[in-house]
Amino acid sequence: MCIQVALFDLDGTLADSLPLIMHTYRRVFDEMGIPWINDNVMRWIGRPIVDIARHFAGGERAEEFIQRYQHHYHRDHDRYTRLFPGTLEMLQDLRAQGLHLGIVTSKGKTGAWNTLRFTGLDSLMDVVVTAHDVEKHKPLPDPILKALEALRIHPREAVYVGDSHYDIQAGQAAGTLTLGVTWGATPREELERYQPDGLLESWADLKSFLEKANRNCR
Q1: Quick one: residue 98, left, alpha or beta (phi over 0 = left, psi -120 to 50 = alpha)?
Q2: Of the candidates 15, 183, 38, 29, which has an alpha carbon nearest to the alpha carbon of residue 84?
Q3: How many CB atoms lie within 10 A of CB 66?
Q4: What pLDDT, on a 0 to 100 scale, did the predictor assign at position 44?
Q5: Which member of 9, 11, 16, 167 is catalytic?
Q6: First to last CA, the chain
């Protein structure tokens, strides 16, 4: 089967929003008096904010954590958010080749669409699945399967691209090809342990991967 759709994680994959996320978490941790351990926090990036809040703040203070996070995140969003270099051009090229494009993110609906509209990605996407659109989240396959169902695409005709091991696990569980980007939150060595179908050092690597995958696919 040919690859007909490329699905992408958002933060740390298409959007260079990690500075915003880290800035926001540090503000919240400081205001709530939660000890900051960088490696521990980074490992949770890619999970829904509800899970992160419960883990670090506990059930009784989770809602406070979420409200503080959303306040700082939305206030500083435009100041800290950018696309990674070449991202817009890469997506435009894939669309010109006839591929369907989609976002599958653990970010909530409001935050995700703020980023998509601010960066101009909204006009390029055929489907967007956020944390508010499914009950079960990455690393489970449900968000990816929902996107594929909306597009009526078989998992074997799709590739999912992300920057965390949650993305790799979700894609593998859904039955898609999986690619990890090396410029996001997760070190290359950790991504390799989850055995994705490939690792990308640049968007040029994605173009090469798709050309090779579709060369003799029919």
Answers
A1: left
A2: 15
A3: 18
A4: 86
A5: 9
A6: 6
Judge whether 133 counts as a catalytic residue. Answer: no
What's the mean pLDDT in 134-149?
A: 96
Q: Which two tokens stand for residue 173?
A: 């569980």
As for how many domains the chain has, the answer is: 2
CATH number of residue 144's parent domain:
3.40.50.1000
Confidence of residue 218 (pLDDT cuts 50, 70, 90): low
The verdict on 102 and 131 lying in the same domain is: yes
Percent of the chain with pLDDT over 70: 100
Per-residue pLDDT band at 172 (split at 50, 70, 90): very high
CB 49 within 8 A of CB 108: yes
pLDDT of residue 216 exceeding 80: no
Cite the DSSP H helix spans in the chain: 18-32, 38-44, 49-57, 62-80, 87-96, 109-119, 142-151, 165-174, 188-193, 203-214
Mean pLDDT of 113-124: 96
Last residue of a domain, one of 60, 80, 100: 80
Q: Residue 180 corresponds to which tokens in the numbers above?
A: 């990890």
Domain that holds residue 56: 18-80
| pTM for the structure as a whole | 0.89
- Domain boundary residue, one of 56, 80, 104: 80
Give the lowest-confidence range in 34-43, 115-124, 144-153, 197-206. Answer: 34-43
127: nearest Cα among 18, 22, 7: 7
**Together in a domain, 92 and 160:** yes
